[in-house]
Amino acid sequence: MADFKALANYEIHDDYYTPKSAWEQLKDIIPNDKIIWEAFLLGSVRSKSINNLKELGKNVVGNTDWDYFDKCNELEYDLIVSNPPFDKEIKIPILKRMVEVDKPFIIILNVCNVFSNYFNDIFKNNRQHLQIVYPKGKIHFEKLLEDGTTELKKNTSFYCVYVAYKMNIDNDKLYLD
What we know:
Layout: E1 16-17, H1 20-24, E2 35-37, H2 49-55, E3 59-61, H3 68-71, E4 79-82, H4 88-101, E5 105-110, H5 117-123, E6 130-133, E7 142-144, E8 150-152, E9 160-165
Parallel strand pairs: 2-3, 2-4, 4-5
Antiparallel strand pairs: 1-7, 5-9, 6-9, 7-8
C-alpha cells in the first residue's frame, strides 16, 4: 500500500512529455475544424505535442515561450487540448483560470485529481460541463534522458483520465477503445 505522505521525501521529476499515443486516443473527439491551443508547453522544448496533434489533422497553435496566464485572454483559439503540469501548486491556479476563461478544453490529469477537494471546489458551479473520458489502459509518458532525447516509459505508476469541459462529448465516446 502506498503512503502518499511519504512522497514529499522524494525528488520531483517533471521532465516527462505526452506521447502521440495519448492524443491518438482522442482523434475522433477533438474537432478538426477548430483552433486548438496546446497551452502548457512553457519551457518544454522537447515536447512533440503540437506536431503530434497536427499529424492527426488538427489545427494547433502553441509555443514553448508562451505562458498560459499571459496568453489565455489574448490568443485566438477555440479549445485547449493539453497536459498541464502535475505539480499541484501550478495545476490548481491553471484549473481555476481555465474555468474563469470558460472555454472548452480536454486535459490529461492523474485520476486522483478528480477525487480531490480542490477539484471539487474549482468545478462545483460548473459540474454540468464536466465529462471524464476514460482511456484504454494507462497513459504512459516520454521521459527526458540525460542525452536530451526522450524515451517512452511503460512503468507509469498512476492512472490518468482526460477531463473535458464544455465539449459535449457523446456518452458512447467517453470510454475509448
